[in-house]
Amino acid sequence: GPNYTGAKATTPRNVVDLALKNFSREWAALQEYRATVAEHEETTDSGWVDEPGYAGDDGFGSVDDEELCMSFADQLKQLTIDEHELYERELKRQKEGDYFKKKHWLIKAPYVLLCFLLDKVYPKERPIQRFWFLETVARMPYFSYISMLHLYETLGWWRMGAAVKKVHFAEEWNEFHHLLIMESLGGNDAWIDRFGGYHAAILYYWTLNLLWLISPFLAYQFSEMLENHAVDTYSQFLDENENILKDLPAPAIARQYYQNEDLYMFDEFQTSRAGHAARRRPQIDTLYDTFVNIRDDELEHVKTMVACQSDVPVKSPHEG
After folding, report:
1. 20 to 30 Å CA-CA from 154: which of 73, 84, 234, 307?
2. Is 56 in contact with 37 (CB distance < 8 Å)?
């Protein structure tokens, strides 16, 4: 599995060592995948833990999550997401106030293409794999924005967005934990899903960098549209699978993230919730609670992306 799930060191090895080890792992997985997809899906664990003895303070690599994925495999396979109902839900939202018509033509085409491909690649019975792909890609915008803001600062072009980098990092940290939750549910078991997700993320990162050079406002607008799509997707998923999700326990990584004693990073990306009274304090008991809060997180990302498109400076919620 990826090094962040089980490694005790926080500093990576050199690029050659990392690349060769990863190639070795993925090559073996590819051969296994080609031999028999069915056997691979049934016999391979979630990839969540490579070293069960590791018990890091950050909660990564929880054995509880490995057991959750294996113990409730049959129930997890019953989860669905209907792409036709999702389309109708999104179409209804976009028609309200001519939302879609107001968006720039330059980002409409790739947005529609991405949604179309997601529906074709991930059928109704593979929602967790779809979510894993989405969360892998969803981290890239914030990494891109930080990179470009850092570049502009280095070139001496722009420093007014320096404080926003912290907000964007908190957003990426949030999406990272969404990704870990999907991995705890087996979302990255199949080699083909990892191959597609990783390559799509790299392509998306460089595309966003180019879009930022053309217009940072368009880059933020594109992310706003994708985050709104995520809200619709998780809302549809919750409506379809409410009973099943309420019968399943929450992954340990979800409880650790949402109910941690230190929620500074969790609060930081929610720029619309300044002040202690407005802050969210989720109670995570079931898988349903987990996905409700993931959906609510995505809605907060939408609000922050909208704020980044205005002339009013975006501030950390801890500043006021």
Report:
1. 307
2. no
